[in-house]
Amino acid sequence: MDTSPPFAGSHSLRDTQTGVRIKFIVTGQYPGDGKPKPVAFPDPALSGTVIDGIQFVCLPVLIELKLASGMTNPGRLRDLADVQELIRVLKLPRDFGAQLHPYVQVRFAELWDAVANADREPE
């Protein structure tokens, strides 16, 4: 893969063959609007799990990051939709929210209720 920065001083790379942007997320940065908040990008070595030899962030942390991102940046509403999809596909219980940082717990409960209500409504 051949990569180059999309512009001078960029914190990301772009694959020169496919045009796909590769963005680097740094421990301690804040999701969404980038402004300080109780939820920040963690050190992957401390908050991750290894699956088939690959380090992944654990599910509660992923959901916290997506919620904090969608809550603070109107351009990141897809992150809230991602959480709804995780709730639906993984059949997460409502009390899963108790594992999350208090900053995002209410929003998780709102999204969980929305998924539960949508599943009950006839099409």
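The above is record 1. Record 2 follows with the same two-line structure.
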Amino acid sequence: MTHRPDVFGDMRDACAALAKKEAGFARALDAIGKPHSRRRPGGFEALFRIIVEQQVSVPSAQAIWARCQAGMDCADPAHALRQSEDGLRGFGLSGPKVRYVTALAEHWTSGEIDEASLAALSDQDASLALQKIKGIGPWTAAIYLLFCEGRVDIWPPGDVALLGAWRATRRKGPAPDMKALDARAVKWRPYRGVAAHILWTYYAHIRGRTPI
């Protein structure tokens, strides 16, 4: 497999290109210096964790994930399958998320999908392969490809933190909505993943938090 650029290395050229395209990125980068790239090991455990994090607050997700880690081997899909529905619910997972984790574990243990095969696919094909699994939509697929593989041109649609950050960079005009932001992100190719990391870092900055 040929080497693919990632967001875990030197992003100065990408940041400069984005700042040239959009004054909002220039303002964000002036405030943060450089983006913080979230990095996680890939594989089943990473996707399990991202499912836990869907549509809940960061503290809630952290608490549920800590209970999962304490009660089972989160890296082993076979162990996840051996948990009863009540067992997974006992860690704090909702009914739908229990089904999503189970579907993920079934795909993983069957060999239909794995970390290496995903890494070998194009951005579009990797996203589509992930979305074949129940409970994994465009946002979840994008988060995996950004945090675990560091792909530079992946955009997570519908991310409210990105919207909050982008609104904060604006100096005039009406505040954009989610649909408008996702549409505008097309202009940021081939660095949409870098754009996302800039905005996440800026969002932490304006809220007085350390990027995670």
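The chain has two domains: 12-37+154-206, 44-147.
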